[in-house]
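Changelog-linked ticket: magnesium ion example.
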Amino acid sequence: MENCKVIAITNQKGGVGKTTTAVNLGVGLADSGKKVLLVDADPQGSLTVSLGVKNPDELDVSLSSLMQSVIDDEQPPSDAIITHPEGVDLLPSNIELSGMETGLFNVMSREYVLKNAIDGMKKNYDYILIDCMPSLGMMTINALVAADSAIIPSQPSFLSTKGLNLLLHSINKIKRSINPNLKIDGILFTMVDNRTNNAKDIIGAMRDTVGQNIRVFDTEIPHSVRAAECSVTGESIFTHDKGGKVAAAYEALTKEVESIERTSQNRSRSDWVR
Ligand code: ATP
Ligand code: MG
């Protein structure tokens, strides 16, 4: 698509809801009529498993084969993409991506391999969401170089918010050195238990401080065991617990993300007019 937007869902902290957000934002966007590709950029293959592939390590073709074809300057494999019944496409990954990441250190233009692998696919999609691994290593750098913007899921806990500084610093470094157009769409609070004052205090403080410069999404994803069950059943929250609070939250997030797209398009249009 002419206006395909590539979003990296990233946080070097583990277990903050990156993969869950990739699945449910992806399906949310597909439900609102968008063409969506989900890219699993984590050798753990959690996104791949969450979308119903039981044994990712048995896949013949994956993101790592696609990236290898870029490095070798060969024709990309044509059968890398898997279609999920809920209307999203998946570029799956498995443990082979770990060897690929290590090998990247000897490759020319090593930061651009993922970008070169997915750029040719943009014509088919409105959104490409990249589910990053919990590190700031070469795969995550590749994701941030390939991306137009980043969404940062974070739990409302003291240590999670402390780690954000390091991430914001890394994003700024990539923006300054390689990808000047990279934007931060926002920080998304996940697994929020509103019964605790601690969560409320941390979210309030973040909105008052970091929120002055970076969007903190109005939508907060509530903590619910129904969300955790999804990765086991291989379906999104919209199928697993349609009327539930997590489905409602991811639907609201989808609208927020779509509205960012609209406002930034409006902004570039008015810039042009001026
Ligand atoms: P990793 O860093 O390992 O890639 P991640 O940031 O991708 O982790 P997830 O895998 O999405 O995080 O979530 C971590 C765990 O929390 C999973 O078991 C998931 O099912 C669960 N989980 C995600 N969202 C919620 C939620 N809203 N409520 C309760 N549990 C959740
Ligand atoms: Mg994950």
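Closing comment: Example verified and attached. Confidence is low (pLDDT under 50) at residues 266-274. The radius of gyration is 18 Å.
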